[in-house]
Amino acid sequence: MSTGTRIAQARKKQNLTQEQLAEQLGVTRQSVSRWESDAAYPETDKLVRLAQLFGVSCDYLLQGVGEASGGTPPSPVTRLLRQAAGRRVQLTFYEDGLNVACDWCTILEFDGVWANVEFARKRRDWRETQLVPLASIRSITFLKDEGKGGEA
Asked: Is the distance from CB of 124 to CB of 151 less than 8 angstroms?
């Protein structure tokens, strides 16, 4: 089954027309039609929103991995974020506007779309917490823990 077919099935299961779905996503009905006919793919932010609206994972929409509802196994992104939560990491972003001058950061919590990230510098007196859209994160690099005696 293709991505477009999964999108169409999930839309119909929610009793939505293409036009209603398009309105919720801020796109045209033609865009939804192109996705469902596999002539185009939704942008990442739209794909995440589709998964939320339909109660499925992005992995399910793209690859048919997991169930459409219920016991869906966590996506690779979710598994990575679970490993990163509470640990020191470096993040790079797709959008320049999200870069914060920091030495490291900690992912405090996340949901399917946003992460609450604490940015820090080696100076102990500077910390800044921001909500960051997950779709803007380009890479996560795990940093070696410096232990209790090291700088945080």
From this structure: yes
Q: Which pTM does this prediction carry?
A: 0.47
pLDDT digits (tens, 9 = 90+) for 29-83: 999 999 999 898 888 888 888 988 888 888 888 877 655 544 455 667 777 787 8
Angle at 112 between CA 128 and CA 87, to 5 degrees: 45
- Cα distances from 45 to residues 50, 123, 149, in angstroms, run 9, 35, 41
What tokens does 105 get?
């950061």
Give dist(CA 43, CA 58) in Å, integer.
Answer: 12
CB 28 within 8 A of CB 47: no
How many alpha carbons lie under 13 Å from residue 147 in its C-beta half-sphere? 2
